[in-house]
From TrEMBL:
Keyword annotations from UniProtKB, A to Z: Ribonucleoprotein, Ribosomal protein
InterPro entries linked: Ribosomal_eL30-like_sf, Ribosomal_eL8/eL30/eS12/Gad45
Name under which the protein is recorded: 50S ribosomal protein L30e
Signal in keyword set: no
Amino acid sequence: MDLAHALKVALETGTVRLGLNESRASVEDQKARLLIVSRTCPDADLVRERRVGHVPIYHYEGTSVELGQACGRPYRSARSRS
């Protein structure tokens, strides 16, 4: 399963929070199971917060704009799946 298909399935079937602030809130609430961050995402804070929440991080090779487009969103985004 490629990432684009996995993102589509997650968006259709699961709870997905979009954006850096929503992703941080999901980590803080210990609801996040996975973070997907683009190579342009300022993820130093997310990495630190992930250690607290023990959430795995997937580093997407594209930009935040490309990640948003892969999820069917026309804007930059970070992702968390809870």
